[in-house]
Every structure is written in C-alpha cells, then in structure tokens.
Amino acid sequence: MLWLKILLIAVLVVVVLCLIASEVMYHMTFKRYNGTPYTTVKLYNDYKENYPRELITFPSGKYNLQGYIYGAGNTRGLVVFTHGIFSFHEEYLSIMLHMVDEGFQVFAFDIKGCGRSEGKNCRSMTQSVMDLHAALTFIESQERFRGLKVITMGHSWGGFASAAVLNFSHKIAATVALSGYNESYNVMKETMLRMNKAVGILLPVAKYELELRYGRKQAHLTAVNGINKAAEQGTAVLITHGDHDEMIAYDGASIISHKNEITNPKVTYYTFTKQGLNMHNSFFNTARAQNYYVQTFREFQEIEKKYKRKRVPEDVRKAFYESKDKNIANELSTELTQVIDAFLKNEGI
User: Fold this and answer.
1) Cα dist from 149 to 13, 72, 210, whole Å
2) Which residues lie across from 237 on neighbouring strands?
3) CA 271, CA 252: separation in Å to the nearest integer?
4) Does domain 31-183+221-284 bear CATH number 3.50.30.40?
5) What is the pLDDT of residues 163-183, one digit of tens each?
6) Are 42 and 69 contacting, i.e. CB atoms less than 8 angstroms apart?
7) What is the distance between the alpha carbons of residues 217 and 129, in angstroms, rounded to a whole number?
8) Model pTM greater than 0.70?
9) Where are the domains of the chain?
C-alpha cells in the first residue's frame, strides 16, 4: 500500500500549497488602502470650507471603523454611503455632497483596512456588507437618527453591500446600487479568470477560505436575495450599471444581469450606454471630466516612461497633479444625479 501513502501525501502537499497560494493571493489582492494625496479627485480639503463634517467611530467585529456625518441637521433622510474597493469614502464626495445639497444627511465610512479605519487589509469581497451591517446597527442605536428614512447607497464593493445588507433585518426605505455585483465568490471567479485562466485551479480553495472567514451563509450572501427579502418592508431599489463595465461584467457577475431572478416589484433598472461614460467608474463624470481623466492618465504614463522601472519621484508626482484642474476633473454627471433624484422623488423620499 506504499503507493496509496505516496498518493495521499502528494494530495496533502498540493492542498497545502494551494491554501498557501490562496492566502498569499488574498493578502496581495486585499492589501490596505490608505489613499494618495496625488490625485485629480477632490478630497475633503477641497470642500471643507463649505461642507462641515462630524467624526463618527463605531465597531465592526474587533475593529473600529471611522466615518463622518455630512449635512448634519438635514431632514429629508439619511444616506448611508459605502465606497468601492481600493478606495475610501472621500473619493466619492462629489456624489455624496450632491445628496447633501438635496437635503439629506450622509453617513459615510471607511471599510476595514481602508482610509482612516483600522485593519491591516480589506479582507475580501464580502467585508463591505459586514461593515455596512455594523454601520446600520450603530445608526439604529443613535437617537439622533430616529425618524429619518434610511437610504443605502454604494458603488461596486459598496453597491453589492448596499443591496446584500437587505438580507439583514434593518429598516431601509430605499437602496441605490451602482455597478454592484451579486455575490462575492462569483465576482472573484470572474476577475481571476479574466486575469489569468491558470489561476482557476485556486478557485475551490479561494471559495473554501471565504467560507472559513465568514461562515458559509454570510460568505454567500447575494444582492438578489436581499432585494427580494426587502419587498416585505416595501424597500425600493435602484440598480444601475454601465453596459461596458470593464471590472464587473454587465452580463456576468453584476446585479443587473440577475434581473430575471428579482421578484421585488419596487425595483428600477438603469443602464448607462453613452460611449466612454458606460464603464465601471466613468458614469460619475461628465464627458469633459472623463476626457480630462484619460488625458491626465496618458500624460502621467509618459512621465513614468522617463523613469523606466523606477518610481516617479514624489516632488515630480506632486507638481504634476497640482498642475491639473480639479474642477474639470470632478464635474459630476447630470445623467447620474437625475436618475437618482427621480428615483427617490418617485418613491416619496
């Protein structure tokens, strides 16, 4: 039976190596994101004179998360905003402050391992919904928010969270899911296979590790199940996606691709179709802002070529980005704001 022992040892070695490779992949993929001061995106320092904010901290598991209230005192409702992956909440201030101008308070926070929140890494594609669940639990414990209609809103990682959190028992008046995916494992699978089909061998291990981190039920929360469950309390849902999304395929892992499975009668769908403004992030921008972003990206690529494999010096990066017009770069799409505003007004919010 020596051959059987050798076979078992070989299988065990392969499994261990796959687990190690999967763990390395998780740490490399979901490493901490602190943001960068060198960007054309307007951050809070660009808005602070006109938009005061209030610091909020709350627990999510063993970590403390940090967020802010914008538009404190507004009474139309409370928008709870969840940002995308490899980002933090300040990079979405243009749309959040539009909501403030529309009369809402906005509660925005940084997910574990992002921005000013604790955590050595972002953990996984499921972390966003767990942290939003913790944020809503905190909100429900605060007297100041009682009586306000709660709207969950988010993009990508946050778009998934804003819909998937409806699987929990929070009272949500409406949800706005921008470029969201339906389920964590499927978007991981889609992304890994798009990058390199050879990594498909790690998919079963990645799935097992996801379940190990969160438990089978929470690891496989879906936006669709949350949306359907939310019909019981009359939650209205807006699902948007660009039809040329390069990150979450419109006909693949996206929420909108599962519309035939959605039974909640209060769901509105919107597809961004304008060329160049129908990708994962570009629908936030005007055409001028998107063209300016592409131009800036190409200009910086030329600078990088001069330094070959070396990192562009900090002073060069700083000078380059300080020379850019942030007002143009941050022009917010009226198509996006009109879709959101019309949806909320139609729902009496």
Assistant:
1) 54, 14, 33
2) 175, 267
3) 14
4) no
5) 999 999 899 999 999 999 999
6) no
7) 13
8) yes
9) 31-183+221-284, 286-331
